[in-house]
Amino acid sequence: MALIYILDDEAGAQTLQIRGDLHKYLIKVRRHKEGDELSFRARQNIEILHNYKLESVEARSAELSLISSKVAEVKSKKSLHIGWCIIDSNSIEKVLPSLCEIGVEKISFIACERSQKNFKLDFKRFERIQEAAMQQCGRSTYIEFDTYKNIKEFIDKFPHANVFDFCENSLQDYSDIKTVLIGCEGGFSSKERELLSSLKRFRLDTPMVLRSESAVLAVASKIVL
Fold it and tell me: Are 99 and 143 within 8 A, CB to CB?
């Protein structure tokens, strides 16, 4: 539990004053009291973990004093890059905290032929969602996001990606997978399947048809955890 922390851009200062929502959360919700030790990180040097002692608690504020600071990077032991054909951003946001906790390193969003064109990705919002998950699980690295115009552009850059698809190959050994491509609702178009024909394809050992976001969670869990 010691690595669970609070993000505060003032973390690292000799004293911290907390007020407002953070005061309410720490004192009323988590019920911290004088003498408790809490961990903080600052966004600009997020790899450094700062430990503070809660010195005093007032009705609307609290003061903490710095005990120690040390480099304490927390991330998955295994790297996973997901190429994810764009789906409804609301569905992405629902599973993003779990992908953060699992330890996914990077997500490339791809405008596939069956992706609906009206979906807009708000990376700033994704970052805020990540931060809430990071503070709860202790992770100290952000998922990296980028975008690709189509599948061809993605596989040209990542020619050794594995493809999650409807096929006969139920993969048992996930240890070598570093990059995985997952389609949107309805899977890949026939043109896209031609582009992917030379890549290694696999499915999960289940008779169920998974939604795109369910597939992303299941595959990430299999590979990383």
Answer: yes
- Model confidence pLDDT, tens digit, residues 155-195: 999 999 999 998 888 878 888 899 999 999 888 999 999 99
What amino acid occupies position 172? Q
Q: For the range 48-55, what are the long-range contacts, defined as Cβ-Cβ under 8 Å and sequence gap of 24 or more? A: 48/12, 48/72, 49/3, 49/5, 49/140, 50/11, 50/12, 52/16
DSSP 8-state secondary structure symbol assigned to residue 45: G
Residues 6+ apart with CB under 8 A from 14: 65, 66
Burial class (CB within 10 angstroms; exposed 0-12, middle 13-18, buried 19+) of 164? buried
User: Do the Cβ atoms of 86 and 108 come closer than 8 Å?
Assistant: no
> How many angstroms separate the most distant Cα atoms in the chain?
66
> What mean pLDDT comes out for the span 96-108?
98
- pTM of the predicted model as reported, rounded to 2 decimal places: 0.93
What b-and-e string marks burial along 123-155, b requiring 16 or more CB atoms within 10 Å of the CB? eeebeebbbebbbebbbbbbbeeeebebbeebb
